[in-house]
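Researcher: I'd like a structural prediction for the single chain below. Treat it as a standalone chain; there are no partners to consider.
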Amino acid sequence: MNLKDYQSEFIAFAIQYDVLSFGDFTLKSGRKSPYFFNMGKLNTGFALKKLGEFYAASIIESTIDFDLLFGPAYKGIPIVSSTAIALSEKHHIDKPYAFNRKEVKDHGEGGWFVGAPISGNILLLDDVITAGTAIKQVIELLHTQKSATLKTCFVALDRQEKGANNLTAIEDLAKNHGVYVQSIVTLTDLLTFLEKAGNQYQKERDIMIHHFSKN
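Model: Treating it as a single chain, here is the predicted structure.
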C-alpha cells in the first residue's frame, strides 16, 4: 500500500512531536494499546500551523462538499481554527467555522455554540476515534440544529479497532448515526509507514503486529 506524501509527512510529524508514541498504554475505553496518539502535545504556534495544513490537504484530497467546519470542545477547537486558516492560505477556500461549549451559556450571546451560525453541510473535525462516545455526544448536539446537516467527520487517525458488536467505531457511526468518518491516516497506514522505515522502527512494528494479531 502506497502512502500519499502528506500522509507520510503527517506520521513523521506526529512522531517528532511525541503525538504518536509507542509503549504499553491503557486507553480511555479500557483497551490496551501498543501505541498512543495525543494531539495535546501540539502546543506551539508552528506545530498547530502544520496540523491545520495536514487536515486541509487531506480534506482537499477527499473532495468533501461542506459549508461549515465544526470543532468539538476542547481539542477540536484548535484543530478547526488551524484548518480554517490553512484552507484559506494554502487552497484559497475561505469557509466559516464554529465550535461548542462544554456547558450552555445563559448570558451574553448565550447558547451552546461559538462562531459562525450552525447551518448547511457540517464537516466535523476531531483528533482520533476509539470508541466514538465523544463524537456521538456532539452529533446529538448538532442534530438539534434544524438548518444543519451532519454527514461527515474528519479525524487525524482511524484506529480501526472493533468494539463489542464487531464493528469499528467508524462503522458504528455510519450504520447507526449516518455519519461517515474519513481520516488523514489509519492504523494500516501507520503500519505501512513503519515497514517502509526499515530498521528504524522494526521493534515498534513487530510489537504492534503481534498485539493486533491477538485482538
